[in-house]
Write a structure and sequence with these properties.
Elements (H helix, E strand, L loop, with lengths): L7 E11 L2 E7 L1 H4 L7 E4 L2 E8 L3 E6 L1 H6 L10 E6 L18 E10 L4 E6 L2 H4 L7 E4 L2 E11 L2 E8 L1 H6 L10 E6 L1 H13 L3
Antiparallel strand pairs: 1-2, 1-6, 2-5, 3-4, 3-6, 4-5, 7-8, 7-12, 8-11, 9-10, 9-12, 10-11
């Protein structure tokens, strides 16, 4: 489990495709400082398992389903990613409960800079949009954020987040531009409620 509070920005060192999977090596000195084989690290919101490590890098295998649902398959050597180690029992929950299980992706529609913050608007599929509510929690590329607005236009559903300079500087969200894709994890509570309602409608 994670909290969506990014600990460092890592850099992809190597991407090795293998049939319908790939092996990813990422440089992240803080993330590997206490990492052991089998530990979980969130890479831009995707929970990956450490299979090897060096002094400042870790390696993880990424399966086909993860590649199809996330942006991991678009990473190349030099790409920047958001990194977070798994939460420890007793840690402050500064963000919200993030599992690292991506629901899908969203696309940046617009970036509107302000004096003290920037507003980013994202397009997402209807099946995800119904789980996103105004003032609710959402993880965007692993970053715990509060939804500041939701809506629909002629092209479909969208949501907005308002980012302070600290978030823009400490994560990869500060470099986003229209057309970029991001990993999305909706609130686990919303997903459970949807599932319960689906079963209730069958009775």
């Amino acid at each position: 489990m994670f909290t969506g509070i990014i600990e460092e920005r890592g850099t992809v060192v190597e991407v090795v495709p293998s049939h319908d999977a790939l092996r990813l090596t990422v440089r992240g000195p803080l993330s590997v400082s206490d990492a052991r084989h089998g530990d979980s690290i969130s890479v831009s919101g995707v929970c990956l398992t450490v299979v090897d490590r060096s002094e400042d890098t870790f390696t993880a295998d990424v399966m086909a389903q993860t590649l199809s649902m996330s942006t991991i398959g678009t990473l190349v050597s030099g790409s920047e990613v958001n990194l977070e180690r798994a939460a420890l029992v007793g840690d402050r929950l500064g963000g919200h409960i993030v599992q690292g299980h991506i629901d899908g992706t969203a696309t940046v529609i617009s970036v509107s800079p302000g004096e003290a913050w920037s507003v980013l608007r994202f397009r997402l599929a209807d099946d995800l949009a119904r789980l996103v509510v105004d003032k609710g929690s959402i993880a965007v590329s692993g970053v715990s954020l509060t939804v500041s607005a939701v809506g629909r236009d002629d092209e479909g559903e969208w949501f907005e987040v308002s980012l302070i300079p600290e978030t823009l500087a400490a994560t990869t969200l500060g470099s986003l531009a229209p057309g970029d894709r991001v990993n999305i994890e909706t609130d686990i509570l919303a997903r459970h409620v949807e599932r319960l309602l689906a079963f209730g409608s069958r009775s």
